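Sequence, please.
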């Protein structure tokens, strides 16, 4: 049996070194909770530009190239933010236009929003948008088939939107926990999904929020996942490094999840990212190494870590 050199490269890129810092570029009020109407804050003052400047500076310091999922309605209003991120070498990807949850839309609506957001972002950077993150990780089992079809139809190449566990807010339990091409109705889609990391706690599962977990825990989580051949996707919003932001009126549990740990978040990011030099690459860089014919299973005993059609879920 011959070993395809590309396969070895895949092992290197996904197995031992790759980790992604993703920044969801949106305003402090873009949150999808029941009873919150963020449209009423559209004209309120924000510190987004200042927070993005700070993130750009800190990423430079930490030698991190991030993947920025930019909300296109914000980009249309404040294109300078997108230009600065792009000029600093970060990847510009899409976070949609309206910040509405995916599963609440009809497929045509979602597809139109995707096309619009790509147009806006591409006009600003002059570069093709390749990836998308669903607001509030709002991809469900029910909408998965049309979701990936819509991304393919508008020429996208990857998604980082599925939480392969269950929280009280989101999740697709049973989904693969490593990058894969979702197999829908017997066909591997051409969209590479980078799932979000799942933290197992007694009796529950949670996202790997930088604000909530200690830096040593996050670094250990990344190293452990990398050792198993799984890259980790970290995610941060500009509002998460702004202790002085206005507060949304939220019920207690949601308020804790939304605002806990903001004061120490920027310093903690430094302890996490600074402690793992060279591991953070933009998601587009991993696309070159991926092939939809192969779905990678890091637990496979094939010796190559690759197996075709491993994600054979009937939806
Ligand atoms: Zn968002």
């Amino acid at each position: 049996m011959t070993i395809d050199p590309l396969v070895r490269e895949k092992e290197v890129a996904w197995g031992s070194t790759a980790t992604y810092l993703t920044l969801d570029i949106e305003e402090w009020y873009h949150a999808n909770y029941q009873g919150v109407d963020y449209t009423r804050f559209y004209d309120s003052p924000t510190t987004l530009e200042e927070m993005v400047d700070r993130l750009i500076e800190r990423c430079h310091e930490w030698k991190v190239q991030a993947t920025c999922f930019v909300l296109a309605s914000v980009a249309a209003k404040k294109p300078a933010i997108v230009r600065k991120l792009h000029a600093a070498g970060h990847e510009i990807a899409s976070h949609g236009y309206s910040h509405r949850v995916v599963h609440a839309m009809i497929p045509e609506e979602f597809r139109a929003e995707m096309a619009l957001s790509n147009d806006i972002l591409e006009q600003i950077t002059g570069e093709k948008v390749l990836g998308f993150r669903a607001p509030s990780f709002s991809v469900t089992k029910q909408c998965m088939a049309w979701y990936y079809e819509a991304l393919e139809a508008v020429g996208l190449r990857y998604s980082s939107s599925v939480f392969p566990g269950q929280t009280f807010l989101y999740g697709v339990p049973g989904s693969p926990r490593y990058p894969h091409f979702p197999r829908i109705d017997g066909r591997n889609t051409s969209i590479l999904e980078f799932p979000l990391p799942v933290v197992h706690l007694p009796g529950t599962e949670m996202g790997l929020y930088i604000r909530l977990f200690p830096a040593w825990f996050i670094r250990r989580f990344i190293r452990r996942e990398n050792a198993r051949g799984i890259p980790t996707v970290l995610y941060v919003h500009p509002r998460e490094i702004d202790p002085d932001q206005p507060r949304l009126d939220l019920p207690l549990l949601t308020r804790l999840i939304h605002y806990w740990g903001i004061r120490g978040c920027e310093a903690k990011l430094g302890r996490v990212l600074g402690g793992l030099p060279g591991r953070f690459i933009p998601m587009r860089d991993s696309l070159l190494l991926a092939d939809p014919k192969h779905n990678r299973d890091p637990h496979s005993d094939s010796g190559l870590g690759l197996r075709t059609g491993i994600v054979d879920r009937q939806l």
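The chain has one domain: 5-307.
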